[in-house]
Write a structure and sequence with these properties.
Blueprint: E1 12-13, E2 20-21, H1 30-47, H2 49-59, H3 67-81, H4 90-119, H5 128-158, H6 167-177, H7 187-216, H8 223-252, H9 254-257, H10 264-275, H11 277-281, H12 285-315
Antiparallel strand pairs: 1-2
Helix pairs in contact: 1-4, 1-12, 2-3, 4-5, 5-7, 7-8, 8-10, 8-12
Length: 321
Amino acid sequence: MNGSCRYLEGPVPCETCASPVQDLRPRWTVLDSLLCGAIAGAIAKTVIAPLDRTKIIFQVSSNRFSAKEAFRLIYCSYMKDGLLSLWRGNSATMMRVMPYAAIQFCSHDQYKELLGGYYGYQGKALPPFQRFLAGSLAGTTAAMLTYPLDMVRARMAVTAREMYSNIMHVFVRISQEEGVRTLYRGFTPTIMGVIPYAGITFFTYETLKKLHTEKTKRPQPYPLERLAFGACAGLIGQSASYPLDVVRRRMQTAGVTGSSYATILGTMRGIVAQEGVMRGLYKGLSMNWIKGPIAVGISLTTFDVTHSSLLKLHRMGYFAH
């Protein structure tokens, strides 16, 4: 037989010998997606942890937010409790964000594949609505599976170390003193916020990459370009869903702030009545415009870069599926 077999996807006939051959190219697995997503989420959240903690503290209080007051809070925390106090609650954040990001990125890949097959775009870029839908479904899936960890993280961020000594202590005290259902307080506004946030974020990022490829004819953007695309995606996505993020935090921390937030509308009415629309529902948004694009940009870029690096390692034979 003349020539050599060209390995295609799946057990397909060779073009020259007509015999079935198996694709020997490395395959991207669910485990790979989970690993890359966990790494991306951990790095991004650790970088912006002090800003995230500061934002939560302002979100759950009636104090007026300003950049000056935010950085004063960071400075006072540093002077009083030391540098590591700025990362208080970050262990709970890691316990939440690593599985959250892993599930979100992994499910996003799966939903893109499912929607592509269903709508006839297998192996091609999805149309705009399907891109938005894949992102929304991925965010919703991740939020549903990791929500109690988000509640614990919020509690640790706004309380003194004496109240909750570690993550398990938060779970035990909330369950004993407030009931297990409290672990899901704020779940509805979370899902209502995640749908537009994740949908818009992934949609924007995927769209910018697609437009970049069409304009430059390069298959993949450079890391700094990915970072810029991710920052734009995070800025738009978080701005669209921010009021629901404030409502979620108020409901999550009601048990330790002395507030009685029980429903979404009731929480919104209370915030607007006491603090106004812009100073209440959008409190800390300017801080989010700093930390949000940084976090999303780092997360999406890290996922893509880790993804590419892992594929190279597969090709070099370091891993076998």
